[in-house]
Amino acid sequence: MEDYYLLSAFKSKGLVHIINTNRKSGALNEKELRNSLESFKDLLTIPSLISNKFDFTIKESDKMLISEKSLEILILKIKLFFKDFDLDKVVSELDRFSVKNATPIRFNDFQDFKDYKNNLKNELPEDKKLSDYINEKKKIERKASKQKAVKERAERKKIRSNEIIEKVTKDSIFVSIDFECLYTDNKIPIEVGLSIFKANESLEKMHFFFKENEDEFKKQHRKFNKTDSFAFGETLSLSNDEIKEKINNVFSRVDVVVCHAAKLEKQILTLLGIDYKGKDMIDSQLLYKSKKGEKQVRSLEGIAKEYDIKDISYHNAGNDAVVTGLYFCELIREQKPELFEVPIIEKKNKMRRVVWIFYQKKTV
Length: 364
Description:
By secondary structure, the protein is an alpha/beta fold.
């Protein structure tokens, strides 16, 4: 945003400068000087400035600010009109009348300007400065703009996630990944979990501890330590480079990367120097929120309860990756149930095996 300058300060200093310059040079007689001053004032009237499409903002009810860019154009006009006057000194003294990062208002005509000021006066609560009121309105507008941008970004992510799922086949391979970091510093990863799966089949589950960060981890309170709670296999303590190699190897084999609240995972992947941008990535937390039409995102445990996933110790990266994969499969099932249908021949074979096992037990 541009800087803005107090219009009244420019006007008064400009008038004083014209008078002083003339007195020193004696270039104009009294009548000519008076005409020059009137002409200068006319150039700086609000209707004149508005007709030139200058950008303003309003500081108080009777004070206007002109944008730096508009001021430069105005000075050029004045210099053309008053060829004998140098306004550089006036401009150099305006810095103390500047306002940083103001929001421009461009009026179509003088009536538009009057309507704007009248509306502000009518809305203005008692015992409140207009400048404070305008700033509050701008904050509300900025907040609304930010919320709109967040909604639009979430909608784009939802569309992208649905497009990715539409491409999924029975042979598509996913990995859900989760990092746990130091409670006091989320840029220091402590553990990572990876769960590799297809739509209806679990393939592999991994849990790694970052060996280099062990000393930092020991300083952390015990209640934040869930590294020994991995319920689906063995936890391996590896170096950063070894973990990076493992993740790169997994990413090379999968079609889609799934994260519950992907911001942290993206941050740590970047810190580790792992290129994930060529992969289709889905934030399953946002996907769940959009599919269920909810206003707020849910925690991993909250979503797990909805799908009756029980008896899991959360905040262990390995367990969290597995649970993320499980509920993500349920989201796929809701969108593409055909991926989970068992072919008739497989059903018959499965039934034969059940009958055979039952028969064997009966005859023993």
